[in-house]
Structure formats: C-alpha cells, structure tokens
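[stage:ingest] chain + small molecule (4'-deoxy-4'-aminopyridoxal-5'-phosphate)
[stage:ingest] validated
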Amino acid sequence: MNKAETSVTTNSSVYDVEKIRSDFPILQTKVHGKPLVYLDNAATSQKPVSVIRKAEEYYSKMNSNIHRGVHALSQVSTEAYEGARIKIKKFINALGKNEIIFTRGTTESINLVAQSYGRANFNEGDEVIISEMEHHSNIVPWQMICEEKGAKLKIIPINDNGEIIFEEYEKLINEKTKFVSIVYASNSLGTVNPVKQIIDLAHQYNIPVLVDAAQAVNHLPIDVQDLHCDFLAFSGHKIYGPTGIGVLYGKVNLLDKMPPYQGGGDMISTVTFEKTTYNELPHKFEAGTPNIGGAIGLGEAIDYVQKIGIENIAAHEKELLDYATEAVTEIPSLKIIGTAKDKVSVLSFVLDDIHPHDIGTMLDFEGVAIRTGHHCTQPVMDRFGIPATSRASFAMYNTKEEIDILIKGLKKIIEVFG
Ligand code: PMP
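[stage:predict] done
[stage:export] tokens:
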C-alpha cells in the first residue's frame, strides 16, 4: 500500500493510517483467506493493543474489588477506576467527576434516566419528545415509562435526506413536554443532528435533554458544557474500548435529585431494616461491583483517541466517507439511504432487488465485514419503505483501498445477480 495515498494532512500533523493500523492486531486477521476489511464500526469498533494490554495488566496485576478495601490491591484498582472517571470527565469537559456514572453502555444509561428521572417526574398527560431516527434503545425505555405513567411519546419526523424537520420539533414542544431525548448521530443514516439548537429550544421551556452520543463520541469532539445537555450517554465499545462499559453524564443538580436506579452495595451510605440512606454521586447510581477492568480499559481507549486527536480522526473519516459516497455513484442500481448534509462516516444503501442479507453474506466471502438489517432503527426503515439496508461504517483505521475492495465486491455481487 502506498503510504502517500493513505496519509492525509490534517491541521496539525500527518495522519499515518498505516501506523494506526499496526496498533490494531485484529486488522491482520484473514477471513475466508482474504485480508479482513472491517467496515462494521458503527456496530462495534476494534481495540488498539494498548487497550488489550490494559485488560491483561488489570487482571494480572491489579484485580481487586474497589472502594471498600484497605489492602494495597484494592487501593490500586480503586485509583485506576476513579482515574478512568477523571479521564472521561476531561474528555467530554464535564464540570465534575461526580457527573460521570459508569454503566454497561448507552442502553443502560438511557434506561437509568427513563426509570429514575422519568418515574419521578412524568405524570398522566405529559409528553416526551424523541425523533424518528432513534435507535431502539432511545425509543423503548421511553415507551416503557410513558406507558407506566400515562405519558405520551411524540416523534419529530425526518425528511427524505434523513434530517430532522426542525419546524416540526418547534410545533411539538409545548408546556406538556417534560423531556427531550435525541440522538447526536444516527447509526443507520449517519445524520448528525443540530443537538445544540435542539437543546437551546428545549431549555427555553425548562425541559431537560438527553443526548444519545453512541455514534458521536468516536467521531466528534464533545463538550457537554458547550452543548448544555442535561444528560449524555455513550458506550465504551464504540470508541475503541471494551464492551460492557459505558457512561452516563448528567448535570449534578439533576442527578442529585433523582432517586437511585438500582439498589445494592456501594450505592448506600447506611442501611438498617427501617431505613436506607444513599451514597453521594456518582456512587448512588453504581450499585454492585462494576465493570472495573472495563472502566480502566475505556480510560486507556480515550488516551489512545486523544493521542491521535479526535479532530484528526474526524478529518480522516470525512475523507473516507466522501470517497465512498463518490465511488458508489459508479453503481447506478445503488441508492444511499441517509443523504444529510452533515454526516458521520456511515454509508447505508440498498441495491435494486438484491437483499441486504445476500450482500452482507457475499461480501463476507471477500473478507469485507459490513452490517445488514434494520440496525435497531425499525422506524427509520418504515420511513424509507424498506425492510433493511446494507451499512458500511468507517473508523480511524480504514483506508480508501478498503473502500475500493468494498466497491469491487459490490460490482461482483451485481454481476452474479445479473
Ligand atoms: N444508540 C445508538 C445511536 C447506537 O448506535 C447504539 C448501538 N448500536 C446504541 C444507542 C446502543 O448502544 P449499546 O448497545 O452499546 O448500549
């Protein structure tokens, strides 16, 4: 591979994609005898060697339960766990580390807010606003709590490009609205939403806003103070960290007033059979032994991302998305689903009459991993009148050469299907 072709000049440095690739051992894998072309990053990203080593280091040198131990290992693991919290606080520019709650991932973070904030604050006739492009994990938790409380879910529609129709949002919001929960970047369309404007409008009505940043945190710089979001959720595994660990950011004044989500060890201050008092933030929301190794691994992943620079990653991914978007114009039967002006590196498409499942299976024989299906966004599929799409999603380690292999594979499939 020609290095000059795979390096892009960014604002501050030369982006050395080959060097980055060498940090990800799995990229050396062969699939069906072909080099792996991993384009399923929106589902989960691969892990750099530093994150893999950190897991090994944790279990071979630090493993011990946190917070409650006086012995040396417990102190080491507590320090590393709390150290990861501080890294995340800085990464998203939270005001304090007590605003960072470790969860299992975006899904659990959203469920926590729905079950805790929602149960305490929603009443009969109240309304919660989400959009038509939400992932199921930003639909179902709200449906569940709305059903329980007799509240209503209101949906911001999207246009044919897969963009939120802001005027419709303006029409939906009113004094009955009690909460807005919105995806920052869509996993099935790639659309980046104007979350700052969405938040500003909600705040004019004193309505809190949760931002689902599962597909944003790995592509865009995030500053929760600049966004003014009340809650923000993301998953470690989408940002080159381990699975089973995620984050809920919440403003301290809201988190303080919210009841605990789960009961158990570590979230309490005192327990008697008559009465339990709760621990301070963030521990009030971290019942039981958490994913200690996962949190430490996530801290390491964030170090890695910061070393490369999220702006540099974004510039590289934009170049890949532009290249792929242009390249698929060579295939007249291919239609892109999701043509918003502002997108993260997600390319969803349908090919006349060829089922996405067949596309995914045949590409797999070429070593190319993409995702096919509804991508946990069935309402998006309904909006476009399709059952599924094929989705290629690009990460910091992908190259234009890999996109060429994808395009070649697609052309071959079209030939086979005649
Ligand atoms: N929201 C969006 C936009 C997502 O892409 C995903 C994962 N595909 C989720 C939420 C849920 O994330 P997790 O499964 O890691 O909890």
